Amino acid sequence: MTNADFNARGVRIERFLRSVTQAGQVLIKNGRLELLTSNGREIDSAPVQSVHASKPWFTDGDQALATVNGTRYRLTLGGPDQPAKASGRGTATRFLDAIRAARSRPAQG
Questions:
Q1: I need a labelling partner for 83 at 20 to 30 A (CA). Which of 10, 44, 94, 96 fits?
Q2: Domain boundaries defined on the chain
């Protein structure tokens, strides 16, 4: 079993401005993005090659937008319990970097 490329817990996941979970999990592992509820139930997942992810220009918070299987999600990754790393990069930036890195790796089979 391989380690996750990215793992964030306590993530607020919204779909169409409606909260899906207040304390979910975003996981990038084995070339797949998974959005999970706080109890580990899958909300949505897809290969990173088919995921569109970006940082919204209209907010200065630690948020990212992700389109998974045609559904758009707003992810609030950083919170009071998840401060920015020593590098000053927030969790949303690390999430986007992990998506790019996972896309550049060959598919695992």
A1: 44
A2: 6-104
Backbone dihedral angles phi then psi of residue 52, each to the nearest 5 degrees: -105, 125
pLDDT at 87: 44
Please name the residues in contact with 65: beta carbons below 8 A apart, sequence gap of 6 or more: 53, 54, 55, 56, 72, 73, 74, 75
Residue 41 in 3-state DSSP?
coil
- C-alpha torsion 24→28→31→35, nearest 10: 10
**Owner of token pair 């909260």:** 19
Per-residue pLDDT at 1: 45
Q: If one looks up domain 6-104 in CATH, what number appears?
A: 2.30.29.30
Q: Give me the sign of the Cα torsion angle 59, 96, 83, 6.
A: positive
